Amino acid sequence: MSTQIKILVGLLFTFLTCLPIAVVTYNDLGRDLGMVGSTQKSVIEQRADALSGRQIEVGADLFSQFCIVCHGKKGEGISGVAPALNRKDLYDGRYLKQIAWGGNAQTFLKDTVSGGRPVQSRPDLYAAKMPTWSNQFGGPMRPDQVDSLVSFLLNWKDQAPEINAWPPAGTPRPTPTLGPTPTPNPATANLHPYCQNVPASFQGKTAPYKPDDKAALAAGKTAFESYCAACHGLGGRGDGVAASALNPKPANFTDKEFMQKIPLDCHFYLVSESQPGSQMPPWKALGEDTIWKVLIYERNFSQ
Ligand code: HEC
Ligand code: HEC
Question: Rounded to the nearest whole angstrom, what is the distance from the C-alpha of residue 96 to the centroid of ligand 2?
Answer without folding.
Answer: 27
